[in-house]
Amino acid sequence: MAQQQLKPASELAKKNGVRFPNESNEYRRARDLLLAEEIELRRHIERVAEQRRALPSGGQVSRLYRFESENGQVVFSDLFGDKQTLAIYSYMYPEQRERPCPMCSSLLSAWDGEAADVDQRIALAVVARSPIERLMALKKERGWRHLKLYSDVSGEYTRDYVNADDEDVPAFNVFTRRDGAVRHFWSSEMGAETADPGQDPRGAPDLMPLWTILDSTPEGRGTDWYPKLSYPK
Fold first, then answer.
1. How far apart are CA 233 and CA 157, in angstroms?
2. Which carries the bigger pLDDT value, residue 224 or residue 198?
3. Cβ within 8 Å of residue 178, ≥6 positions away
4. What is the DSSP string of 126-186?
5. Staple 123 to which of 83, 140, 210, 231, CB 3.0 to 4.6 Å?
């Protein structure tokens, strides 16, 4: 099917018609130019997502990975539940770390509120290298209700899909279960090696709602601020 011819973003921006009290003509001109760029960004996000969905089949998961859940031992296929797609976030909270990563914790706190919605379409799991008892204590401390946490006791999954040297780094992997085979589908592969000068080596799309909000403000993300595990009351 032929690709639909899209109207120029600048043309769509002219149809906007939004005006706010007391704004100057200078502001409106600049804002409409920005709107055109935002439309192009939305289109680019759609193109990238379409290209991601069209990836060839990834490598088959051949090892029998075992995890500890709050209800006992499970194997990798159990993490899918009744879904055909499984997303796994690898949490920076190994046994040697006294407290979990604040950035990961901020992300997962936001995801906990979305987990019930995500579960309507795919399975979502959080894996860390800490013992399951430690993860359950953290879940209670953070007030998480919906996230499913698993302990990678042996580290086999972590070494294969997060870091071969079992370093304390995060990861986000997606797997599929089709025609009796479990395969790797996609992983966020943007790290320090692929970062532009002066930019945080984040993925695209950015998984953190926090940054999406701050990117809409004049202060932005800043260069010297990161989330904390707790704040003074």
1. 39
2. 224
3. 84
4. EEESS-HHHHHHHHHHHT--S--EEE-SS-HHHHHHT-TT--S--EEEEEEEETTEEEEEE
5. 83
Structural Rg of the chain based on CA atoms: 21
Short-list 154, 106, 103, CA closest to 127? 154
Decide if 229 contacts 100 (C-beta within 8 A): yes
Which residues 6+ apart lie within 8 Å of 4 measured at CB?
Answer: none
Cα gap 175→187, rounded to integer Å? 9
**CA–CA distances in Å: residue 83 to residues 49, 68, 177, 206:** 20, 20, 8, 24
- Binned at pLDDT 50, 70 and 90, residue 223 comes out as confident
Angle at 186 between CA 86 and CA 100, to 5 degrees: 70
Q: Report the distance separating Cα 101 and Cα 226, nearest Å.
A: 11
Q: What is the pLDDT of residues 36-74, one digit of tens each?
A: 999 999 999 999 999 999 999 999 999 999 999 999 999
pLDDT digits 0-9 by tens, 71-126: 999 999 999 999 999 999 999 999 999 999 999 999 999 999 999 999 999 999 99
